[in-house]
Design goal:
The complex is a heterotrimer of chains A (302), B (503) and C (282). Chain B is of the alpha/beta class and 503 residues long. In chain B, 39% of the residues lie in helices and 17% in strands. Chain B folds into 2 domains: 7-277 and 480-498, 3-Layer(aba) Sandwich (Aldehyde Dehydrogenase, Chain A, domain 1); 282-468, Aldehyde Dehydrogenase, Chain A, domain 2 (3-Layer(aba) Sandwich), CATH 3.40.309. In chain C, helix 9 links the parallel strand 8 and strand 9. In chain C, helix 3 (81-90) crosses helix 4. Classes of the chains: A alpha/beta (302), B alpha/beta (503), C alpha/beta (282).
Chain lengths: 302, 503, 282
């Protein structure tokens, strides 16, 4: 399929892996204490897309998750709600219902998640159905097969088509960086997503290891920053999968703070896709409040 | 990015990025309650703490607060003589000791240094002004590595120099600078001891505390008395040491000017000499480079340790086609350098080491401004007490500007441009120094072509300011001679059968 | 018998055989029959310029080629054995001593010829550093080196200092023996017929007293190798540009001993070690 863009447009600067990882190692030594820690942890909650993407997902499971997203820690009114709940398309309607009246958005994966190995018509139809069911955010997967075969135009065109199908819904483009393997590939895939009009670039489905890593997110942040400086358009970044502790989350926030700066330190422009992260963040917040280390079973297991 | 886009972006003020407004980091000071500093330090001679015959002491201060930390003995000629004699007395037994036993002492020293790592990191930061993050992650671990690395050589000299009958030289006089006080002491002492020499070390006047604390480690390790002697003092003490007739070798790290004086001072005495002197390193960035990582490399190259680094990448040579883009990136990155309390774990740049050095940097930046170079410094509040200087970048610099020729030894970067690889090489080598160079390009063949042509002892390709005990370090041309680290570094502490005589 | 055609003893600079720019000559050992070019500081200056140019050609050649060229020196010495022995006799050696010196000179050439392409392996290294880096140290010539050759032996004295410097890739300017300059200068003819690049080897004759200080002080000489005891005056002058300085003080017996004159340790002080770091990643 011929793309509307020439391959030249998809050319990206090279990435030096060792130096990128060195920068991450350096930023990971940032010591976030006291007020900064509390603020960062709360921000992380606000940025969280609470996610359940299993074959065994049931209405009960989704309702529990929605409740947790609305009110992560009922005993504390200062703990904010999460950004969104992320589910499969068939559970969107249920989630919309459960979240009515709250600020929490409903995100749906689509386009043959997680592998994306289905035809274009089916992918677009899935997007349309999820949007019609009330999803305000669509998390699509790119065609990694086409990308790795060098058919960048096909990847670009598909994102454009999905974006159009999204209508007013925000489009998050999952690169599945664990399958792209090299930073150069990731940077190029990110460039394609940016040019095709994605509102977010997202690292992973959570179904492939490694999922989100700090160096990959730093790379994406550099790419969206440069895109903004070049075009004036802001694009968000979502780190998904493998982020389990409050300490991890703070490390990601440090990358945001020191790469893109103040503009991106908001749920509008940075998200965490996670399931077990929330409780650890809550434990850390309680530890900061009380000065005592916490017991995991004291926090609701939703 | 095309020219038009760039201009549009510049016009759109709302495209600027700001940092630290939404989520400021709270202070995170390293605790120092486990570090005690005696009010007075004597000389370390023959395994004992000895009062100086001069009866004089001088203060060493914390450059971040200007508060005195301790008094340190001023060694005079007689003290120098006593130190050399103590080392000479210890030499026969130390050289006779088996290599395996010498190794065990050095291994033990490495271990104790790691056990006391945090204490040394704090002490170094207090006495030097460099950030705790660097002393904790670079200075102290590397110092320990040097002892561990050289320990392994002590019983393998005959493997390294087969058939060449390696022998120690004798008493080594070592004079080290203030920019990496403990690390320089380790670089000097470890190979000397491994090869069977004994040492008189003279730390810098303004940063003596960690070298003195290292003597406690020697005592803990049971190192025989006199094998290492540490004498504190000023330039006169150093001068007396290098002129002492009892030395078999002098090893010096410091300025090129003083290095030349030392070469003259030992002239004709048949004393071995190694010099690790100044630099004005070129840091080359090509248009095909990984630019975001190159920015990090350049920042690490010039702002690491406040730029008090002999191999600092003080001359940025960027390909003209990406100059504007790269300088923009660099400027934005400089805005995020956290300057301030060196004891804070989030500080990237600490205090300038001394008032004298601050004056020198200030003077040279004044020279740059007067000569018409464009100055950039991030807006950043600095503490009122102590010695501070902002990260500084000059653009519109040419090879004939003084700031592009003279070593500033501070956080001051000069940006120049080139058009072709040949021009880059010519400009990089257009200096009397030759310590280090950096190359950022994604093209392997070009990197090796450039590296071959750099007149520099260390060439960092797509990285900068990396150090390792196994990696030889030292300069070409007026950056000195001899290497430190690696098997070639050990060579400088060994006498082999045959060969020419030192000058 | 036709009238003999005696040789004019000229300098060897940049592959050419000039007289001294000063127009001066001297009679070695007061021998009134022979005039030898008496170099001036300007001759040294010209030689440094020539050597700087020769450095690129010499150090730029492959180590294998340099080895072949040094071996060619041995061949040329062998084929000019009679003439070279005559030069030594002219400098005061007995015929027997001259023959032995030629044997030794040839032995030095072949030994260093075989060393050229080993220096990198012997002195360089790959270094096991922490982190994802390929780290290696390579050996490069120090640059242009000045040599003050011993008064005797006239040929071996020059070659023993010259050859290790050439093996390391340096270009060299030798001030040959003042009292017996003939064999040293004749080396120029050997070099000229051995594919030694112009400027890699330069030979000056003259008064050591007049020129030694000039060698030490010249800022574009990177190193200085002096026959004799360590000399405070020379080293002090050499410190002006951090020259690498070494002295060579051998006994007459040592000068006759091949094993004493062939050593990697002679190469070491006049090569520079360059350490390269390169990241390793996908």
């Amino acid at each position: 399929m011929a793309s509307s863009l020439s391959p030249v447009e998809f050319r990206v600067p090279p990435v030096d892996a060792v130096a990128l990882e060195t920068r991450v190692a350096d930023l990971s030594t940032r010591s976030i204490k006291k007020a900064a820690k509390v603020q960062g942890l709360k921000l992380a909650i606000q940025m969280m897309d609470l996610t359940t993407l299993e074959g065994m997902d049931s209405p009960g499971k989704v309702r529990q998750l929605c409740q947790k997203a609305r009110q992560p820690l009922p005993s504390r009114s200062d703990i904010p709600a999460c950004a969104a709940v992320c589910v499969y398309p068939d559970l969107v309607g249920l989630a919309v219902e459960a979240l009515r009246g709250s600020s929490v958005q409903v995100a749906s994966v689509a386009t043959g998640f997680p592998s994306g190995r289905t035809d274009r018509v089916t992918k677009l139809r899935e997007v349309q159905l999820a949007v019609a069911a009330g999803a305000s955010e669509i998390d699509m997967v790119i065609d990694r097969g086409a990308f790795l075969a060098g058919r960048y135009g096909a990847v670009y065109d598909e994102i454009c088509a999905v974006k159009e199908a999204c209508g007013a819904a925000h489009l998050k483009v999952i690169l599945e960086t664990g399958e792209l393997k090299t930073y150069d590939n990731i940077r190029r895939a990110c460039r394609i997503a940016l040019l095709a009009g994605g509102d977010f670039v997202k690292t992973s489905t959570g179904k492939v290891s490694p999922a989100s890593t700090l160096p990959v997110v730093l790379l994406l942040l550099e790419a969206v920053r440069d895109h903004f400086l070049e075009t004036g358009r802001m694009v968000g970044v979502k780190a998904a999968g493998g982020i389990r502790t409050g300490k991890d989350a703070l490390r990601y926030l440090v990358l945001v703070a020191e790469t893109c700066g103040d503009r991106w330190l908001s749920p509008q422009w940075f998200r965490f896709g996670a399931s077990s992260l929330l409780n650890d963040v809550l434990m850390q917040l309680e530890k900061e409040r009380t000065g005592r280390y916490q017991r995991p079973t004291d926090f609701s297991a939703d | 990015m095309t020219k038009t886009d760039k201009t549009d972006a510049a016009k759109a003020g709302d495209r600027e990025l700001t940092f630290g407004g939404v989520w400021p980091y709270a202070p995170s000071p390293e605790s120092t309650d486990h570090v005690t500093i005696a009010p007075r330090h004597e000389l370390f001679l023959g395994g004992q703490w000895v009062k100086p015959k001069t009866g004089e002491y001088f203060a060493t201060i914390d450059p971040a607060t200007e508060k005195p930390l301790s008094e340190v003995a001023l060694a005079g000629d007689k003290d120098v003589d006593a130190a050399v004699k103590a080392a000479a007395k210890a030499f026969p037994a130390w050289r006779k000791l088996s290599g395996e036993d010498r190794a065990r002492f050095l291994f033990r020293i490495a271990r104790i240094l790691l056990e006391r790592a945090r204490e040394f990191a704090c002490l170094e930061t207090l006495d030097n002004g460099k950030p705790i993050k660097e002393t904790r992650d670079v200075d102290i671990p590397l110092a320990a590595q040097h002892f561990f690395y050289h320990a392994g050589w002590a019983d393998k000299l005959d493997l390294l120099f087969p058939g060449q009958r390696p022998e120690p030289l004798g008493v080594i006089g070592q004079v080290i600078p203030w920019n990496f006080p403990l690390l320089m002491a380790a670089w000097k002492i470890a190979p000397a001891l491994a090869a069977g020499n004994t040492v008189v070390l003279k730390p810098a006047e303004t940063s003596p505390l960690t070298a003195l604390r290292l003597c406690e480690v020697f005592q803990q390790a049971g190192l025989p008395p006199g094998v290492v002697n540490v004498i504190t003092g000023d330039g006169r003490t150093g001068a007396a040491l290098v002129r002492h007739p009892g030395l078999a070798k002098v090893a010096f790290t410091g300025s090129t000017e003083v290095g030349k004086e030392i070469q003259r001072a030992v002239a004709g005495r048949g004393v071995e000499l190694t010099l690790e002197l100044g630099g004005k390193a070129a840091h080359l960035v090509f248009e095909d480079a990984a630019l975001d990582q190159a920015v990090e490399g350049v920042v690490r190259g010039i702002f690491f340790n406040q730029g008090h680094v002999c191999c600092a990448g003080s001359r940025l040579l960027v390909q003209e086609s990406v100059q504007e883009l790269f300088v923009d990136k660099l400027r934005r990155r400089m805005d995020r350098i956290r300057v301030g309390n060196p004891m804070d774990k989030n500080t990237d740049m600490g205090a300038i080491h001394s008032q004298a050095q601050l004056a020198r940097i200030t003077e040279m930046v004044g020279v740059g401004v007067q000569s018409g170079c464009a100055l950039y410094q991030p807006r950043c509040a600095l503490p009122t007490k102590g010695y501070w200087f902002l990260p500084t970048m000059f653009t519109d610099v040419t090879m004939s500007h003084r700031i592009a020729r003279e070593e500033i030894f501070g956080p001051v970067l000069s940006v120049l441009t080139f058009r072709t690889p040949e021009e880059a090489v010519e400009k990089a080598n257009n200096t009397s120094y030759g310590l280090s160079a950096g190359i950022w390009s994604d093209k392997g063949a070009r990197i090796l072509w450039l590296a071959e042509r750099m007149k520099a002892g260390v060439v960092w390709n797509n990285t900068f300011n990396r150090f390792d005990a196994a990696s030889p370090f030292g300069g070409f041309k007026e950056s000195g001679f001899g290497r430190e680290g690696g098997r070639q570094g050990l060579r400088a502490y060994v006498r082999l059968a045959g060969g020419w005589l030192p000058g | 018998m036709p009238v003999p055609v005696p040789k004019t003893y000229k300098l060897f600079v940049g592959g050419k055989f000039p007289r001294s720019e000063s127009g001066r000559s001297f009679q070695p050992n007061g021998n009134p029959a022979i005039n030898v070019a008496r170099s001036s500081r300007k001759d040294l200056r010209d030689a440094v310029v020539a050597a700087r140019a020769g450095l690129a050609a010499w150090s730029g050649s492959s180590a294998y080629l340099r080895g072949q060229i040094l071996y060619r020196l041995a061949e040329m010495l062998e084929s000019r054995r009679d003439a070279m022995q005559q030069e030594l006799v002219c400098g005061g050696a007995t015929k027997a001593a001259a023959k032995k010196e030629l044997d030794l000179a040839i032995a030095l050439c072949t030994w260093y010829a075989g060393l050229c392409d080993k220096v990198q392996s012997l002195l360089g290294s790959q270094n096991a550093v922490q982190g994802p880096f390929f780290n290696f140290s390579t050996v490069e010539p120090t640059g242009v080196i000045g040599v003050l050759a011993p008064e005797s032996p006239a040929l071996v004295g020059t070659l023993a200092l010259l050859l290790p410097l050439l093996a390391g890739g340096n270009s060299v300017i030798v001030l040959v023996s003042e009292t017996a300059p003939f064999a040293g200068l004749a080396l120029g003819e050997v070099c000229a017929s051995s594919d030694v690049p112009a400027g890699a080897v330069n030979l000056l004759s003259g008064l050591r007293q007049e020129l030694a200080g000039q060698f030490a002080a010249h800022r574009d000489l990177d190193g200085l190798l002096v026959a004799g005891r360590p000399d405070a005056v020379l080293t002090t002058a050499a410190a002006d540009n951090c020259k690498r300085v070494r002295y060579c003080d051998l006994s007459a017996a040592e000068w006759r001993t091949a094993a004493r004159l062939r050593s990697l340790a002679f190469v070491e002080p006049f090569v520079e070690l360059k350490t390269l770091w390169h990241p390793v990643a996908q």
